[in-house]
Amino acid sequence: MKIVGTNEKECTLCGACETICSTFYFKEDNRLKSSIQVEEVEVSPGAAIHVCNQCGKCIEVCPVEAITRTKKGIVIINKKTCIGCFNCVGVCPTNTMFWHEDLVEPFKCIACARCTKECPTEAIFMEEVS
Amino acid sequence: MATSIEDMRKSRKVLAGYDYEQAGVEKGYTGKTLYINISDYTIKPKDVTEEMKDIFIGGKGFGLWYLWNGIKPETKWNDPENEIVISSGPIGGITQYPGSGKSLVVTLSPLTKSIMDSNVGGFFGPYLKFSGWDALEIQGKSEKDIVVFIDGDKGRVTIEEVDIDPAASHLVSEQLTELLAENEKDKKNISIVSSGSGGENTNIGILNFSFYDLRRKAARMKQAGRGGIGTVFRDKKIAALAVKFSSLSGRSNNPADPAKVAKTGVKITREINKFDAEQFRMRQIGTANLMTPMNDYDLLPVHNFKYGSHPDAVGISSDTLRDRFTQNMPDGCWVGCALSCCKAVDNFELKTGPYKGDKVLVDGPEYENAAGLGANCGIFDADYVIEANFYCDTYGIDTISTGTLIAFAMECYENGIIDKKITGGLELNFGNADAAMELIHQMGQGKGFGKIAGQGVRRMKQIFAEEYGADPAFLQDIGMENKGLEYSQYQAKESLAQQGGYAMTNKGPQHDEAWLIFMDMVNNQLPTFEKKAEALHYFPMFRTWFGLMGLCKLPWNDIIPEGNSQTESPEKIPEHVQNYIDIFNAVTGKNIDQDEMIRQSERVYNFQRIFNLRLGFGTREHDAAPYRALGPVTEEEYESRIERYDNQLKEDVGIDPSGMSIAEKVKAMRKYREGRYETLIDVVYDRRGWTKNGVPKLEKIKELGIDFPEVVDVVKKNL
Amino acid sequence: MIEVNGKKVEWEKDMTVEKLLKKMNFTFPKIVVRVNGKVIEKSDWQDYPIPDQSVVQAHHLIAGG
Question: pLDDT at position C61, please?
């Protein structure tokens, strides 16, 4: 499957990925509503990129089976079914199942690749993994 | 009986119907409750007043208030006026915080003849609220079996005749779920309340509340277990209650501040993910995690509470039971609960009874079931515990009372008080799993000795004394009941505070008011009477609060946040108490603090005490404990822990035990322990603002604002 | 002699937190141990010495079913 790969050394924390993601999916430029979030950290290389690796741990804990894996391997949330319990947020090993206080349901990267096209330094890119 | 769901559907005959406009939920309340009289088929809404919300809050508080108004002081449990009230509470039904889907049930009990309340999981309470009703109040008595349907999608309530056999609760839940669901996916929108043939044949009937497990594709059940509520249900000839609500969302409860609810929920959900595996393993083992520590600390009831441990306990230890569970995350009794303590044994092949050979799904076993049905009866066999658990649930009888009353019957049998002639051939020795299983079938089916045993320990004591010439004093000592309710499964002999936590309760000896054994006995944090009394004030009040809100107690202290040990009162889990205050305020838009939280409970707690008084109970004599709960009744018990008891005589009592006979030691120990229990009652009553006879003082009820004329009347009559 | 949860307990040579808990049969998984007021982390129990005359608290964090 194709997921968003990261190379944190190249990240300049410009935030272009966050802007395109939140603008496309939530119609506002708000990094806290982006399914990819970059963060300045003290340890080398200075940037951390948080984006889902499609591991699927969240699928197991969803009480209403709102989270499934597509044929292409991507983990998606059915917002109609989701009852906003955030069990998936709690269990996510990479802290990339995001939530925002304005929203009833959590949200996550569905590997649409829009952010990778915006990244000026190839710090993020589409990557084939098994 | 109908042989297919299609036949069942065709058999539906509407006796009465009521269409309603769904009141939306606003800050945790719909503002409406549903009254149904099954004698004359009245179905009508009632308004929830601001005063009700302020004083009684919801859940158990609403149940008590409606029951108070619905019955007279002389009403008996099986009179038509008796009610069954089911209500969740303002927080009930939120999906973000674990343990927020509880229903509280209130009725007049056939066991205690007084007020009973029970806190139960399953989807019914939340779906009832989201269907438009803060509470369901059922009064009257039907002539034939009926089912009450509440369709929250269409806004319609019906009382119907349906061709369904109410004998086996697991089948009633499954069949009615099937009947109401349009397709497989729809099943999660349905919850059924039912009892079983045990509800007809015993005084310890339970209500099973269903919740649909999407992954197992099964309607599972949680139990409102204590005090015979299922007996009232079947006496009214209710076969089942059913609710359907199809549009559950994270905002169904419409909180004032959803962001705050979400934030608090995410915080504890992350905490559970991080710490549960190294702390109490609620997700892996559930409450059965307590089996091993209870045995290790001599607290697991063995042989009718004579002892606190047994070398064979490994047969039903935490890990033995864990290996029997079929892990299936998430296993919550309400949608979204991250603590997920429900457990199940899948495909369990029954060896006995009417469903012998069937492969069934068994909920649990929980700690209480393994401890009561197993250890307390001297049966250390996991297969037995699972089978007994299944049949108790499906017959609709309380596992806790069942464990304690079989253990009592066994001790009577071993003492020659009852014999094979009386038991109809059952050899009720401790450890005889076959005889115990047969007795459960007899209770469930209303046969043989089961007809006597199923009436509970208090009634058995009376029958054994009056009809079989047993010594009533000895029966009083070993019969583990108080107020008519059987004790739940903890050995409290070495914790004076817990002795009070059991016997000074409103409904009877259930540990939901206080569980102080470790704080008191092991940690020695309550060395004085005053400290014990403070704990017996704070914890029962704090824990009452869960029942006003629609909450479960477990996420309070079965997960411990980081840094808790550095706080001033680690045993209160201050961070979680604050979470609850935050959630209450965020849901209701009110602004309470910790003091007001305790006052909310105190109002309802004292009201319940006064309700007991109104029915002729609730005074000091009803807080007496059987001596088995306080200390060693027999020489055999004394000798089993002779070093401990001799030491206590020397150091605590100030008597030199050398040269005393065991009988003399038992007597001296008894005098000491009974004296201390009486002192404890004095100090606790004083702390609670009650007279020496256990009656709330007038100034206390004024201070709490529950001084309604009819309440004051009852108190005055008892002063 | 030391004091454990307010009760006198015989002191033993080379006593550590771990040895004391074993002696007391304190097997519960969630215990907060303080030796003379200081919280001792679980990872240090094996080596942390308990001198004679110590005041020890071993608070079991459990509030039951």
Answer: 82
CB proximity B564 to C under 8 Å: yes
Q: Which residues of B touch C63 (CB under 8 A)?
A: 515-516, 518-519, 539, 557, 571
Please report whether residue B82 resides in a domain. yes
Structural domain of residue C35, as residue ranges? 2-60
Q: Is residue B505 part of a domain?
A: yes
C7 domain-assigned: yes
Look at chain C and report how many structural domains it folds into. 1
| Least confident stretch, B94-103, B285-294, B587-596, B619-628 | B285-294
Which is more confidently placed, B284 or A56? Answer: A56
Which domain CATH number covers C19?
3.10.20.30
Q: Taking the domains of chain A in order of start, what are their residue ranges?
A: 2-122
Q: Are strands A2-6 and A124-128 parallel, antiparallel or unpaired?
A: antiparallel
Whether there are 3 or more C-beta pairs closer than 8 Å between C and A is: no
Kindly indicate the confidence band of residue B312, based on its pLDDT and cuts at 50, 70 and 90: very high
User: Taking residues B115-129, what's their average pLDDT?
Assistant: 98
Task: State whether A86 and B249 contact (CB < 8 Å).
Answer: no
Alpha carbons B339 and B551: distance in angstroms, whole number: 13
Same domain, B176 and B280: no
Mean pLDDT within B671-691: 98
Partner-chain contact C63 B518, CB within 8 Å = yes
Q: What does the pLDDT average to over B502-509?
A: 98
Domain that holds residue B553: 496-559+592-718
Specify the fold of A2-122.
Alpha-Beta Plaits (3.30.70)
Q: Confirm whether B389 is domain-assigned.
A: yes
Lowest mean per-residue pLDDT among A42-46, B49-53, B612-616, C14-18: A42-46
Give pLDDT tens digits for B436-456: 999 999 999 999 999 999 999
**Long-range pairs, B41-48, Cβ under 8 A, ≥24:** B41/B15, B41/B16, B41/B159, B43/B16, B43/B17, B43/B18, B43/B157, B43/B159, B44/B18, B45/B20, B45/B133, B46/B137, B48/B134
CATH number of residue B538's parent domain: 1.10.599.10
Closest chain B C-alpha to A51 CA, distance in angstroms = 18
Query: What is the distance, to the nearest Å, from the Cα of residue A124 to the centroid of all Cα atoms in its chain?
Result: 12
Could you read off the pLDDT of C9-60 as tens digits, one per residue? 999 999 999 999 999 999 888 898 999 999 899 999 999 999 999 999 999 9
Same domain flag for B227 and B321: no
Residue C65 maps to a domain: no
B26 and B112 share one domain:
yes
Residue B292 in this model has a pLDDT that exceeds 80 = yes
* Confidence (pTM): 0.96
Best of B281, B366, B515, B522 to disrupt the C interface (most C CBs within 10 Å) is B522
3-state secondary structure of A100: coil
Nearest residue to B43 via CA among B151, B164, B145, B203: B151
C-alpha distances out from residue B192 to B104, B143, C39, C61, Å: 15, 21, 50, 37
Best residue of B119, B297, B317, B573 to probe chain C, by most C CBs closer than 10 Å: B297
Interface of B with A in 96-155 (CB under 8 A): 96
Last residue of a domain, one of B221, B244, B267: B244
